[in-house]
Target: Bacterial regulatory proteins, tetR family
Amino acid sequence: MNGFEKRRKEKKEAILLAAKELFKQYGYHKVSIAEIAKRASVSQVSIYNFFESKENLKNQLMKTLWEDYYHTILSVINSEETVQKKIEKFFYTVAVYSRNYSANFVAESLRSQLKTEENTTEDQLEKIRQAIVFLIEQGKSEGAIKDTITTDAMLNLIDMFRFYVIHNPQASLNYDQNPHLLDEMISLLLTALLV
Model:
């Protein structure tokens, strides 16, 4: 990568980072291109050259955030950790993702992202689901996860937690104000699943 390409990449990353921070803090609709440009230390023209519109910028940001989340979740599930540790890290990853990227912005944007890139996102969601099912079955066979509860019931519990932290902005605020609350919630979930 030559110097020009490197500077161009750094500028684009600065714009995405500034947009992410501002959207998280104020919400997508309350942030202007001028504010993003100022935060990223670039011109508004640069933003339009890279993304054409604020909507395209948001879509690119959501794609980047989703890809990061997707790969992080699969990395946690496919790690060499114990089943218990993988499940615990999975729950923390879901919660931290929501806290870091503002539940309102993520929930609103993820719905539109699912519509625009339906096949890719649906495939990735299915891969995550299959990895979780494999993890649950592995845990049951190793005696780490309760075998008296069906895999479907466990998947529903996991989905309820994910839906709660992603679609409930108050949850993120509660966890920020009382970090032990998240620990307690995850402890309750682990108690429900683990032997």
User: Anything to note?
Assistant: The two ends are 52 Å apart (CA to CA). The domain at 1-52 is CATH 1.10.10.60 (Arc Repressor Mutant, subunit A). The mean pLDDT is 87. The chain has two domains: 1-52, 55-193.
